[in-house]
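Sample intake sheet
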Amino acid sequence: GLDLLLAFNVGIEVQGRLLHFSREARNIPKRFHPPAVVGTMGSAAACAKLLALDQLECKNALAIAASYAGAPLANAATQIKPLHVGNAAKHGLEAACLALQGLQGNKQILDMESGMGAFYTDYNPQTLPALQSYPWLLDQQDVAIKRFPAHLATHWVADAASSVRRKLVENSENLLPLDKIEKVILKVPEVKYVNRPSPASEHEARHSFQFVACSALLDGSMSAQSFASENVHRPALRELLCKTQLEHPPDNTPSFDSLYCEVSVMLQDGSTITDCCTTFYGHWRKPLKKEDLEKKFQSNAVGILPAKAMEGIIETVYNLEKVEDCSVLSTFLSGQSARTLPEKL
């Protein structure tokens, strides 16, 4: 368990450091989808650590991974997006295994403009601190975990819109006064592929500031079910979408560390209800509580894994540093119940 945790930390560290070497990559880039780039490199580093590769083999693993890396941002708002992440994990493992077999690549790949610099024009690698005084990124910043499956930037929109809804329905028996809404204005960063005024599919809805705002205004919250076809095409939502406009304040840049969303609903009587979100619930500055994290896992796993397996995964992950044989986790993930868990803790 400790070996797996250390490998996970190494993977996050490599991925995070590479992001920090490019402002474009760690915000919202224009060409390459970051999980397909730095995710592949992080996966290779984690697998290299878990497989106990030596220093030369680790360099080769990263070089091989770089040749697997990259996916166009244009596919990020399609059914292909999950493939980017899946391929990153798969190709990182393949790169480590190939390095272990002796395959070699350019060992300076991380330092070269024609290496990692090929993905991001502002890529600027820095010398890292000595190991004795090395600051781990996970010690400095928590992990952001989405509450619902949509582009990260839309989570600011969801929280602001949900707050506006609470104010709107205070005196209307929890029903949104849709007929009294004149206009909805969203102040968000300019991100072209998340600006979708009339999404026609589930995947377009997941990448639409407008859809998430209107859905949260109608329902008060967001979930995976929000993107089901019957909800994407319901008349009330389509009516609200037609009233929704985007604005891009100059100070609202597309940075996951500093962006904000302000939602304003203008009513026919001339009044305006506004709320602003600067840090959504699930952001690394406001991480999910344990019970909400478990709830998300269970909602994703239900129908795929039996209840006993889900319980086993949760217990194993919370006690991972005590687990002697991580194959028990694979057993649970395959849907089986592991009777040998106590002996392996």
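Comment: The chain has three domains: 2-140, 154-277, 290-344. Residues 154-277 form a domain with the 60s Ribosomal Protein L30; Chain: A; fold (CATH 3.30.1330.120).
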